[in-house]
């Protein structure tokens, strides 16, 4: 069994807790991320994906539950030194590389900022050497070091964002919709770059996306979120071939297909959340329908899903 790098246990994040406008952005979510894998996290806008990423990395405090990183409770670390080290090990890549890169800083300084903070370079020469190496790793070159973010295309800017994350030798990278703002032709390039870097550097990814079209190329397993809940979690292939939760089926039916004729004739399956109004007796929870394939369901639904899976 692969080693667990991240364990998310009954995590809750409520915004405006106790107020009338309270939002349960994460409502009792549990999952593990194994060392070296890519876990995809999908769901429509507002379902709590970004909040999950940000709470794992402690950009947000949790309302309840735990996040363990290599067995350590992330939200209970008190020592500044330990926290700084954790901030090095866990890096984030953002959706909009333009908004996340300081427009007044040169690329060299953007990339080297983390190395400076963590004391990873001895002098200016080594700093520049490392930056150039990183630029080359992500498919850019030395000439780009002294330019500003606005001089780059969206895809190039995302490469800079990736170089910045890699600069501090992280173990775990949370990529929050890293390709959503890019042209489709560029999306595949960035995904391929991320896959190559994962192999070379033994990285573990949490890859957040709002639809299921691109995540399948990078994810080993995929979790589907709906309104603050994780509703299905399965190996990618199994999720695409045999989705069980009605919301997952609906999301899959929304992926655009390359064949225009087929695309026109295909119907989007609507999702009706009212069929999942549970009472306490239903004891809804993540239940393992097939090895590694979990669905959020009641005991009664569990039996139905098992039958559906057996007859697949
Ligand atoms: N800082 C905040 N204060 C109050 N509510 C928030 C805050 N951040 C997020 N929310 C709310 O929490 C819920 C989940 O938001 P979140 O951004 O995690 O969803 P998401 O699935 O990542 O969506 P998107 O793809 O649009 O970023 C939404 O209802 C959102 O309005």
UniProtKB/TrEMBL annotation:
Keywords: ATP-binding, Nucleotide-binding, Transport. Gene3D superfamilies: P-loop containing nucleotide triphosphate hydrolases (3.40.50.300). Belongs to the ABC transporter superfamily. It comes from Caldibacillus debilis GB1. Residues 6-252 form the ABC transporter domain. GO terms for molecular function: ATP binding; ATP hydrolysis activity. The keyword ATP-binding applies. PROSITE patterns: ABC_TRANSPORTER_1 (PS00211), ABC_TRANSPORTER_2 (PS50893). This is ATPase components of various ABC-type transport system, containing duplicated ATPase. One of its GO terms (biological process) is peptide transport.
């Amino acid at each position: 069994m692969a080693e667990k790098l991240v364990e998310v246990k009954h995590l809750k994040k409520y915004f405006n807790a106790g107020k009338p406008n309270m939002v349960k952005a994460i409502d009792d979510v549990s999952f593990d991320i194994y060392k070296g894998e890519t876990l995809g996290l999908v769901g429509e806008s507002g379902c709590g994906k970004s909040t999950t990423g940000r709470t794992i990395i402690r950009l947000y405090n949790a309302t309840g539950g735990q996040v363990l990183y290599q067995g350590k409770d992330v939200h209970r670390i008190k020592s500044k030194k330990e926290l700084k080290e954790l901030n090095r090990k866990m890096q984030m890549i953002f959706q909009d590389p333009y908004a996340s890169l300081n427009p007044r800083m040169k690329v060299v300084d953007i990339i080297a900022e983390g190395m400076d903070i963590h004391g990873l370079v001895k002098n200016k020469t080594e700093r520049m050497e490392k930056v150039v190496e990183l630029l080359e790793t992500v498919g850019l070159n030395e000439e780009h070091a002294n330019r500003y973010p606005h001089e780059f295309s969206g895809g190039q800017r995302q490469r800079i964002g990736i170089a910045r994350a890699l600069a501090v030798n992280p173990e775990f990278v949370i990529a929050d919709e890293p390709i959503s703002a890019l042209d489709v032709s560029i999306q595949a390039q960035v995904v391929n770059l991320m896959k190559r870097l994962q192999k070379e550097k033994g990285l573990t990814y949490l890859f957040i996306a709002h639809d299921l079209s691109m995540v399948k190329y990078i994810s080993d397993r995929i979790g589907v979120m709906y309104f603050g809940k994780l509703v299905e979690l399965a190996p990618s292939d199994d999720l695409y071939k045999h989705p069980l939760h009605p919301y997952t089926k609906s999301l899959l039916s929304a992926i655009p297909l390359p064949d225009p004729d087929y695309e026109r004739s295909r119907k989007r399956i609507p999702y009706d959340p009212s069929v999942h109004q549970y009472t306490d007796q239903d004891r809804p929870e993540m239940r393992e329908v097939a090895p590694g394939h979990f669905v959020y369901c009641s005991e009664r639904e569990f039996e139905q899903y098992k039958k559906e899976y057996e007859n697949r």
